[in-house]
Specification:
This protein is of the alpha+beta class and 152 residues long. It has five helices and three strands; from the N terminus they run H-H-H-H-E-E-H-E. Strand 2 (118-125), helix 5 (133-143) and strand 3 (148-151) form a beta-alpha-beta unit. Helix 1 (2-23) packs antiparallel against helix 2 and helix 2 (28-53) crosses helix 4.
Length: 152
């Protein structure tokens, strides 16, 4: 019962935060792009308990997003807009994971190549951080061992 309550709380909290983000968009032309990213993230937030129940890992999220934006249509290469959308989605996901883990950050900046592979993630924390091994393991499990994690 507590898991269902937690799921509903996370959905409501995400809905409130996403509404605030969309209301603060600087230009109406950006709003449709931002709402697409927010909508994708909302789907991921709502599907997370179901994915956990069926034992699907974080790589499933990455594959889904890559397939959704059409990475497989061009022989695996993404356009600049698709790379930006993918990078923004990853950035929001990592930001949420770090926030839930209790870390305070200035920014998270993933770098993605033309095939949609994350090769570097730059993170800037506010203040000192004691232990980050759990997050590093999460990054390595989701994006692979070859991801370079840079702290600023």
């Amino acid at each position: 019962m507590e898991q269902i309550l937690s799921w509903v709380k996370s959905g409501l909290l995400f809905g409130i935060i996403s509404s605030m983000i969309l209301l603060l968009s600087p230009n109406k032309s950006y709003e449709k792009h931002m709402s697409l990213v927010v909508g994708l993230l909302f789907i991921l937030v709502m599907l997370h308990p179901i994915m956990t129940f069926f034992g699907l890992d974080g790589q499933t999220y990455i594959s889904y997003i890559q397939n959704y934006i059409g990475a497989s249509e061009n022989g695996g290469e993404l356009s600049d807009k698709e790379i930006d959308l993918y990078r923004d989605t990853i950035e929001l996901q990592l930001d949420k994971v770090l926030e839930q883990a209790g870390y305070k950050m200035r920014y998270v900046k993933p770098e993605v190549d033309e095939k949609g592979n994350v090769y570097r993630i730059t993170i800037s924390f506010e203040g000192a951080v004691d232990s980050i091994e759990t997050f590093e393991n999460y990054i390595k499990n989701v994006f692979g061992e070859e991801v370079d994690i840079v702290y600023e």
